[in-house]
Amino acid sequence: MRTLLLASVLFAGLMFSSAVPLSLPIPYHAFCRVMWLFAVPCDEVSMKVAQQIQAFYPGYKLVSASAMIIRANHTSLDGLQAENITFTFNPTVETGGCRAGGQSVSLGFTSLLDNGLNYCNLYNLLSVSGLTSSLGFMEITNEWACLGYGQNTCKASPALIFK
């Protein structure tokens, strides 16, 4: 019972928290919303995300970056798909860590089931930057918050990885 209650609270927090703005995607557009927890400070997390977005140029383009929010665009290599990406960062007072939210929304009229493309837009940035193996990393999402999450086959293209 306690696990069910905790899962419900986490899901409600993902859907309605200030970690990800409440701008819900336009219907018929694929989207993904994810929340991550880190045991490292938000400035470190946001810096790594911004650096990785810049390293993935021209596929990813940094639109704006501050300590609390990063906005970027993603365009597929063939130019046929485009998505708006937003990351938000909120320090966790008790642990000195960071709660980060991510959202990727397809701009074109696409199938709602994008095979995890929007999820991979977010996950690849975290994975290649090393954040998925950082201290205290935890990811919270599901098929309701992230369409196609269960079908994702995220693999960062070698052409996009810069160290």
TrEMBL record:
Signal peptide range in chain numbering: 1-19
Key word Signal present: yes
Record keyword Signal present: yes
UniProt entry keywords in alphabetical sequence: Signal
Protein name per UniProt: Wu:fc46h12
Organism listed in the record: Xyrichtys novacula
